[in-house]
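Lab notebook, bench 4. The sequencing result for the construct came back, and we need a structural model before the next group meeting so we can plan mutations. Quick request posted to the team channel:

Model the 3D structure of this chain.
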Amino acid sequence: MSDVLRPTPGQTVGPFFGYALPYERGNEIVEPGTPGAVRVHGTVSDGAGAPIPDALVEIWGAAPDGSVVQRSGSLLRDGLFTGWGRAATDREGGYWFRTLEPGPVEPGTAPFYAVVVFSRGLTDRLFTRAYVPSEARETDAFLGRLGDRRRTLEAVREPDGSLRFDIRLQGEDETVFLDYTPAPGDAARA
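Done. Here's the predicted structure in token form:
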């Protein structure tokens, strides 16, 4: 046996989401009729613009007052708002959540949902943000550094009041994805 260790091929993260990770009502972060509830929805697509029918999307959002929710029970919510949910995409690549709109977590920053995407062909999950429409989006320092690409992180208010956030994994109009380094403070870099 050789003492030389050789790298093994990387593995992708799917496509097993349809039966291994979703759980009942995982996309329903708040109950129907909850005051202030909003529907967050969109489509996950590949580099050619084709929908991805077996992706998994997770979101986390602060409470409407901007406080960071730090309680367990995301899988068994029991009526508690945890800010976290998980949704599998449908055959057309669509996903949706029922949640509350987050408030800004720090003064001078725009409110956003943290978004994680798992999909076939990816060697790891992807991190991004979905910024909620607000005046603070115009002065947010992070968004300001992105130039024209910032629009890929901005959720759009639909006529029915819902928020649309499409995720493009590659190609033209690719969503800006973030790299989280394991440094103190968990700083994000685009």
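The chain has a mean pLDDT of 85.
Will bring this to the meeting.
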